[in-house]
Amino acid sequence: MYKIYNNPWAESYYEGSVMIRPILGSPVEIAPPTPMQQKNSMAIYPNPLPTSEQTIFVQTPTSFKKDHQVTIVIYDEIGRKVYEADFTQPHVILNHMYNGLYIVKLLNHTTNETATSKLIIIR
User: Fold this and answer.
1) Where along the chain do its domains lie?
2) Is 54 helix (H, G, I), strand (E, B) or coil?
3) CB distance 94 to 54 below 8 Å
4) CATH architecture of the domain covering 43-121
5) Are the CB atoms for 21 and 28 separated by under 8 Å?
6) CA 40, CA 49: separation in Å to the nearest integer?
7) pLDDT (tens digit, 9 = 90+) per residue, 76-109?
8) R_g over Cα of the chain
9) Angle ∠(95,62,70) on CA atoms, nearest 5
10) Angle value at C-alpha 91, between 47 and 84, nearest 5 degrees
11) Digit-coded pLDDT (tens) for 38-65
12) Distance between CA atoms of 113 and 38, rounded to whole angstroms?
């Protein structure tokens, strides 16, 4: 291995040291990342769900109207469905669920739209 200090190609004393070679020429232009637009964003609070709480509150997307038929489905971290119910109230009681990461999905059967969010439970 080689190192560059005062002597441009001096051998390194340390095994495995890395030499970086500069790339000459015009720089490559990279487009800035575009933020992802969330069409159907929903909010869940409190998130993470602490030990003292058993109820989550779900704020639905604006496209989900009160007269729409909506189902809430919750999946665990390996994709198993652990909860499913008609979503008629803005709150859901989750006293039967354990610590972990969950995916909460709202299915609007009237418009065939879905909204998804993550939920963390800490008990």
Assistant:
1) 43-121
2) coil
3) yes
4) Sandwich (2.60)
5) no
6) 22
7) 999 999 999 999 999 999 988 889 999 999 999 9
8) 26
9) 50
10) 95
11) 566 789 999 998 888 889 999 998 888 9
12) 13
